[in-house]
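Protein modeling request. Please complete all fields; requests missing the sequence field cannot be processed.
Requester role: graduate student
Desired output: 3D structure, token encoding
Chains: 1
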Amino acid sequence: MPKTLPMVLPAPTDDSAALGGELRRYKRLATGCLGLAAAGWGVSHAGLLPPGGAGLLRAVAEAGLVGGLADWFAVTALFRRPLGLPIPHTALVPRNRDRIAAGIATYIDKEFLEPAMLVEQLRRMDLAGRIGRLLADDTSRARVVDVLLGLLPALVRPEKEAALRSALTRALRRGLERVDLRFALARVLRALLASEALELLIQEMAERAMGLVQARRGWLQDKVSERSRWWIPSAVDRRVAGNMADAIIAHLWDLRDPDSDVGRDLRDWLRDLPDEIERGSPLGQKLTGVVRSALDESAFSQLVGQAVSTLRQMAEEDLARPDGRIRDVVAGAVRSLAEQLDDPDVRGRINAGIEDAFLGAIPRWRASIHRFVSGTLKAQDLDQFTRRLELRVGRDLQFIRINGTILGALIGGLLHSLNQVLGR
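Delivered output (424 residues):
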């Protein structure tokens, strides 16, 4: 793993303080046992006891000292160098921190993250059944609806609007880039041709065009005069221009009528236009190019932004009302889910889906958890790592010292008594 800076751990919690106080008490107890053995050894040499009693006490005390000191050395060597001396194979925990960290991570991985074990626990939980029982109760279902509605305002906050607008714009553009706009544009045109709006649109465009021609009669007369021969009278030019304008207006008027020749031709061309666009005709390519250009303009982003802003405002106003539609929608969805979960087959399928998803995610979770546990422990400061480990196991280790002193003393007394018996 890459080198990381030592992790600065938080100040000891109340639990750590309690553990530290308990560890100190048992250290004093173990040291007291060792001191008692040392006092007994001193008394045995003070000449205060008869020779037989002094010998027994000396054997008991010496064996207790040896056992207690040996176990003190062993316990101390786990966490630091005894008396600060550079004795080989001491300070085992700090020297092997990385190996211990990897071992702890591997233990957690093997003992707690095995797929078969986790899946068995997941099956026992019956998540779909639990959710179904929760939603079957009216009170619990109402609480679930309230919780879901409480989460929605955070999703529509104004500060999140920019990110949502940007993400939605990118998603729409990427989606449209993959779409063949010829077919989409052809479907839109077919829908327009099949609607009543087509005739209204043709009539409106024809009437506007007639008004434009009528308003430009003077311009048309000027253009005819500019192109006319010098010998043709101006009155003739005006009559020609007027006749041209009248003919154009009449032609546009006929376009309004679906039963006229020109009206039928226009509508036949419009009906064939979607097929022509789908075939990729030059006109279809031009139309799809115009649509794609429009999607690349900032107006598209503004349109999406306005839509998102409008939807956000509508959602906020609706959520603020006790009889809002969003509440009804969420409540209906939760009620529908509760009804579906009443079916054992549905619950079985949901549980099977959860199990499949869980099995698919376990390998990634296991690797990530192993790296997290191992990396976190390896990144800790050595002194803090050692101290925290000692706090957790130090109390039990002090019993090793106490038991070593007592057991050594008992064995010393037993051996001394056996020597006395066998030596006779």
